[in-house]
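Title: Comparing notes on inverse folding

I've been comparing how different people in this forum approach sequence design from structure. To keep things fair, I'm posting one structure and asking everyone to reply with a full sequence. Here's the target:
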């Protein structure tokens, strides 16, 4: 059994930031999950749909009983929604969390309990059957580590779907930090950083020759529609003043 205590707000932020990156197709069960990996210091929350990847860190405040060195808990998207619906918390005002949760992971179940009150008086609790750990799930922390290992580089073009790019907006909102996007040598994926607690990666879309030709035509059309780059701003009067 593994039992740890985490900040409610910290866990909510991590689940909210990572959830948009899980697989949506019901037939791809291996990727239709949010995974929690637990060590002595952190709960690492990860998800991927094989195009985008999200990883967030939750600090452990009290390793209560014991921690299995390789403790892994797979949550369905529906279970994540239940957690976010049941356990609310105000923002933490200092380094100490204003509300805390105890996560207990057994062989066949997991249980999350609000332990913010007096010792021995627990708040709301959610107990769910534990899904079998899918051994085919990728090692997301290693994937992101490799993605970030190269030097920052310049790229001329990167194509992606708008919904995949927008998924990282959620992390920017919940952590209230800018979304930093970098291209690095050794990989075609973009590296994403949001504050100190969230990392991500985004794979590009390969454009067909036909799609690339269309984009070239559209770029040419925009050059004719837009003012010449060396033209004077149109909010100036003939004397050159506003």
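Reply #1:
Here's my take.
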């Amino acid at each position: 059994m593994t039992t740890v205590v985490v900040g409610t707000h910290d866990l909510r932020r991590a689940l909210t930031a990572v959830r948009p990156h899980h697989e949506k197709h019901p037939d791809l069960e291996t990727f239709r999950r949010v995974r929690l990996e637990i060590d002595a210091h952190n709960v690492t929350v990860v998800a991927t749909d094989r195009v985008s990847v999200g990883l967030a860190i939750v600090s452990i405040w009290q390793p209560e009983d014991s921690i299995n060195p390789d403790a892994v808990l797979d949550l369905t998207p529906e279970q994540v929604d239940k957690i976010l619906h049941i356990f609310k918390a105000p923002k933490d005002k200092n380094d100490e969390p204003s509300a805390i949760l105890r996560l207990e992971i057994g062989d066949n179940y997991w249980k999350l309990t609000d332990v913010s009150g007096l010792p021995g008086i627990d708040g709301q609790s959610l107990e769910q059957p534990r899904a079998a750990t899918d051994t085919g799930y990728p090692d997301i922390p290693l994937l992101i580590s490799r993605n970030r290992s190269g030097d920052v580089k310049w790229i001329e073009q990167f194509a992606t779907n708008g919904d995949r790019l927008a998924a990282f907006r959620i992390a920017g909102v919940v952590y209230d930090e800018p979304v930093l996007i970098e291209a690095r040598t050794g990989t075609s994926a973009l590296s994403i950083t949001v504050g100190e607690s969230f990392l991500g990666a985004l794979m590009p879309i390969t454009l067909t020759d036909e799609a690339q030709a269309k984009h070239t035509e559209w770029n040419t059309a925009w050059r004719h529609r837009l003012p010449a780059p060396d033209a004077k701003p149109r909010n100036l009067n003939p004397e050159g003043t506003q």
